[in-house]
Amino acid sequence: MIDAGGLLSKIFFRGTRVRDGSVGRINLVVVYFVTLGFFPLVSLLILNSNISEAHASFLMSYCWQGHIWGDPAAEIVGSFFGRVEFSVAGFGEINKKTVEGVVGCWAATLLACACCATLPGFPPATFFSVSLISLHMMVATAVTIMETACFRALDNGFIVLSATLVSCTSTCQNHPVFAHFWSSVKISEDPTIGFSPNLAQLIQHGP
User: Fold this and answer.
1) Residue 190 belongs to some domain of the structure
2) Residue 193 located in a structural domain
3) Which of 128, 135, 158, 169 is 20 to 30 A from 13 via CA?
4) What residue numbers bound the domain in which 84 lies?
5) Cβ partners under 8 Å of residue 49, min gap 6
C-alpha cells in the first residue's frame, strides 16, 4: 500500500511528469511544500492589506488565475505546438521550455485576469493606480517571468506571489507593508554623502 507502486503512492504522486524521469516524485514533493508555504503567505498579504473584505476574495481569485490557467497553458501549448526550445533549471531529467509555451502562458493569464475582473465583487477600476488592462498585462508579465525563470517545482508558489505583489502595489493606497518600507527609505539631497572629502569637494566645485 505504501511502496513505490502502492495505493498511497498512486494518490500522492499521481501528478508526476514523464519528463521528470527518476526525480519526478521529488519534484512533486517540493511542489507540495511550496504550496503549503507560499499560498498562506499570499492570503495573509491580501487579508492584511487595505482591500475591503468584500473585495478580498475576488482579488485573491484574481491572483490565482496565472496558476490556474497560465501555467497549464504553458505546458499544453509547449507540448503540442512548441518548436523553439530552451533549457531551464529544475528537478527533472529533461528541463526544457518553449517560446510558444511562454507566449501561451502570457496570453492565457491575460485573458483569465480580464474575465475575473468582470465579476461583480472585483474592486472597481478607481481602486487601482493603473488602468485595468494595464494591471492585467503587468500581472500576466510577472506570472510569465516567474513561470519561465523560476527553478522548476518552485514556480507555482512564485506565480501566485508575484501576481499578488503586483496587484497590491498597484492600488491607489499601497499595501501597509510596502508603504512602511518606502517611507523608511530616505534619499538624501546631498550628492556628496558617502564620498571621501577630496572627492566630495571635486563633485561640488569641479576639477
Assistant:
1) no
2) no
3) 158
4) 7-183
5) 56, 168, 171, 175, 176
Strand, helix or coil at 97? strand
The backbone torsions φ and ψ at residue 115, rounded to the nearest 5 degrees and listed phi first, read: -70, -40
Number of domains observed in the structure of the chain: 1
- Tens of pLDDT along the chain (207 residues) come to 444 555 555 555 555 665 565 666 666 666 677 777 788 888 888 888 778 888 889 999 999 999 999 988 998 998 889 899 888 876 666 677 899 999 999 999 999 999 999 999 999 998 898 999 999 999 999 999 998 988 777 788 899 999 999 998 888 765 554 555 445 544 444 555 555 565 555 555 555
Grid coordinates representing 203?
A: 563633485
79/153 Cα distance (integer angstroms): 18
Length of the chain: 207
Measured over the CA atoms of residue 65, residue 77, residue 144 and residue 156, the dihedral's sign is positive
Q: Measured on CA atoms in the order 118, 121, 127, 129, is the torsion positive or negative? A: negative
Residues 42, 57: Cα–Cα separation, whole Å: 12
CA-CA distance, 108 to 123, in Å (whole number)?
21
CA distances from 104 to 74, 112, 186 (A): 5, 12, 41
In a domain, 189, yes or no: no
